[in-house]
Specification:
By secondary structure, the chain is of the alpha/beta class. It folds into two domains: 315 residues, TIM Barrel (Alpha-Beta Barrel); 97 residues, no CATH class. It is 40% helix and 16% strand. It has 16 helices and 16 strands. The chain has an eight-stranded parallel beta sheet with strand order 4-14-13-12-11-10-6-5. The longest helix has 33 residues. It is globular.
């Protein structure tokens, strides 16, 4: 069940999403628990943070440990020892990142200064992209495993089947996700294929619900079904975005799509934020549907997208940056400012001033004995000093990455609380 409304005197949407594992307040951010975990954190750490929903990666879990093993554990929740809501992606994004560049001749490199650089496979070492990695047809995706080179086939039907086997609370349709700077003819092909595959995903979704009803011999209520999102593609071409959305509307499952996602990266090849495209896409989506800004994760971009009406966000930025020693903090009195300011009037530069980052490996922190974060609700972040954290990173002690990751996730969760106010 989805209940969305505008916050009074604010462009940000409010409300709640009812899932099989509890309600989620809107707007919200989901960290990437790619392979069934957030690196360095236990379920106990996540409970300390009062973590809400997270994202797991269909592609990686399918390859390792494998769906059979996860099913034996009682689904991904049992395997992870986590009872909070989980969303699974379709698995296609990772496969396309290996195939699309060579197939279309597109440039998908991002400027190193962009916070979104290297976020496609943030938990994978950089690897060369080659047409030998696989191929995409209207019928299926053929790809080689990044683990052992074995051949695999992914179809829209199989993607939905895997996500049902994971027993997640929210799932995403398989879409064709080319780089934003592709030629228009390639973008058109991707839009047509995305609509075609969404229809096949919708039919398989309804089929899986029916199978569950037969097994349990009872009618499954809509509130007990996993939420399903279709993805709007089209690159930076607004007409193609509209065409894709209208096509998706016509191929929905029996009970309709629960929401729609923004397909492709939220930035161009130079790292520039695609604000116009994101706002246009948000306005295409009906008010009663969830708006999922896939891959949006820089704090200022989350605020900007929340202003546009986007409801949910996910990205590796807080966890990846934490593991590399970059920590996020509120600026003095910034919480009060972001609450009292009229978000509609804030521009990019005003928004970005509400927080700051530090690089803990910088030598200036070697003798900084102030707490890592005196305002934190986490005892360790109030007790350990920046000098100690600097020491941990210099010696590559995993505790340092754990503390930095917890700091960043707490910052992101606090940010979403501020927006919900």
């Amino acid at each position: 069940m989805v209940k969305i409304e505008k916050i009074k005197n604010s462009p940000v949407r409010s409300g709640s999403i009812k899932t099989t594992r509890g309600n989620i307040k809107v707007p919200f951010f989901m960290p990437d628990a790619t392979r069934g975990f957030i690196k360095g954190l236990s379920s106990g750490d996540l409970e300390k943070l009062k973590m809400g929903p997270m994202v797991v990666n269909t592609y990686h879990l399918y390859l390792r440990p494998g769906i059979k093993k996860i099913k034996k554990a009682g689904g991904i929740h049992g395997f992870m020892n986590w009872d909070g809501p989980l969303l699974s992606d379709s698995g296609g994004f990772q496969v396309f990142s290996l195939i699309h560049q060579k197939r279309t001749g597109c440039c998908s490199a991002l400027a190193e200064s962009s916070p979104y650089a290297n976020t496609k496979n943030a938990d994978e070492p950089p690897r060369p992209v080659s047409s030998a990695c696989g191929k995409i047809t209207d019928e299926e995706i053929v790809f080689k495993s990044s683990i052992d080179g074995s051949k695999h086939i992914l179809t829209p039907e199989k993607s939905i089947q895997i996500q049902f086997d994971l027993e997640v609370d929210m799932m995403v349709t398989l879409d064709d996700c080319p780089p934003n700077d592709c030629k228009k003819k390639d973008l058109e092909k991707a839009v047509n294929r995305t609509i075609m595959w969404a229809e096949r995903c919708a039919k398989e979704y309804d089929k899986q619900i029916k199978i569950r009803e037969i097994r349990t011999r009872r009618k499954i209520r809509k509130n007990d079904m996993p939420l399903i999102f279709a993805v709007i593609q089209g690159g930076t071409d607004l007409d193609l975005r509209k065409r894709c959305f209208e096509g998706l509307q016509n191929v929905a499952p029996k009970n309709g799509w629960d929401g729609f996602g923004y397909g492709a990266r939220p930035v161009d090849a130079k790292g520039n934020f695609l604000g116009e495209v994101l706002e246009y896409t948000a306005n295409l989506i009906p008010e009663d549907k969830i708006r999922f800004a896939l891959g949006v994760g820089a704090p200022e971009d989350i605020v900007r997208c929340a202003k546009m009406g986007w409801d949910m966000f996910d990205c590796v930025i807080p966890t990846r940056e934490g593991r590399h020693g970059r920590l996020f903090f509120w600026n003095r009195n910034s919480k009060l400012k972001i609450q009292s300011s009229k978000l509609k009037t804030l521009n990019k530069f005003q928004i970005s001033k509400f927080y700051r980052t530090i690089n803990i490996v910088n030598s200036k922190f070697a003798n900084d004995f102030s707490p890592i974060n005196p305002d934190s609700k986490i005892k360790e972040l109030r007790g350990y000093s920046k000098a100690y954290l600097h020491h941990l990173f210099k010696l590559k002690e995993p505790l340092g990455q754990r503390l930095a990751t917890m700091n960043n996730l707490e910052f992101y969760l606090d940010l979403m609380k501020m927006l919900r106010k």
